[in-house]
Design goal:
This protein has 238 residues and is mainly α. It has one domain. The chain is built from 12 helices and no strands. Helix 1 crosses helix 5 and helix 8 packs antiparallel against helix 11.
Length: 238
């Protein structure tokens, strides 16, 4: 449930600040970097219980980054007449980069925990942890590729076709996020943790909803593509 609150709040902030974010993206990137740096400082040197509970927990759980990625993916499958799509679709690049910055703090913090175990050899890793780390590595690789190619300077150096092919990696990236969540949360859910189980249900409903909307939009575009040549032929015949 906390993720839904984060998602709604993130969407509201992005919607209210859509023009400043579009006009001054570097300013918001710098702010995200500062917040991420503060989180990593708290990881290394500690912070008060209040800060961890009400400020830093979303950074630790990566819910802010996930909320931003969710907005980016969902606005792409909403109806073309959707007000939310009109508001946020122009911000997809900026929101993606902001999500990547926030995700980097989560990645770095957990690297400090798990790298010593990896260095200790295979015996330090149980199968679930090993699989989770494998998925995480794939996510990091895809995140780096997608983030780098989101910057205008890099995009201009690529052909439109190459850039579009690279951006298709967003789909397996989003899917792997769900796989990562399942692997991390399922053991606790099976042990009877009600809050974790609720979170898992929320994430599952979210990703199923996205898949349905994505397929619906793809079928709609396909139907339009088939109908257009038929309409053109009819005009020629008349």
């Amino acid at each position: 449930m906390s993720f839904l609150i984060t998602l709604v709040c993130t969407g509201l902030v992005a919607g209210l600040l859509n023009k400043p974010i579009k006009r001054f993206p570097v300013l918001f990137y710098a702010l995200a970097l500062a917040l991420t740096a503060f989180y990593l400082y708290a990881v290394l040197y500690g912070a008060s219980v209040f800060l961890w509970r009400y400020v830093l927990l979303p950074f630790q759980r990566c819910t802010i980054a996930l909320a931003l990625f969710t907005l980016v993916m969902f606005v792409g499958v909403l109806s073309d007449t959707s007000r939310l799509r009109a508001l946020l679709y122009p911000l997809r690049r900026e929101l993606s980069i902001l999500g990547s910055i926030f995700a980097s703090g989560h990645i770095i913090a957990y690297m400090t925990v798990f790298l010593p175990k990896v260095a200790g050899g295979p015996g330090q890793l149980n199968p679930n942890l090993a699989f989770s780390l494998g998925v995480s590595c794939l996510l990091v690789i895809l995140l780096v590729v997608l983030t780098v190619t989101s910057f205008v300077a890099i995009r201009k150096r690529m052909s439109p076709q190459s850039w579009k092919r690279v951006q298709l990696l967003a789909y397996p990236f989003f899917l792997l996020i769900y796989v990562h969540l399942i692997v991390v949360l399922l053991p606790s859910a099976l042990s009877g943790a009600e809050t974790i189980t609720l979170n898992l249900v929320v994430y599952t409903l979210l990703f199923v909803s996205y898949t349905v909307l994505r397929l619906k939009k793809a079928l709609s575009h396909r139907a339009q593509a088939i109908a257009q040549p038929a309409e053109s032929l009819t005009r020629i015949e008349h």
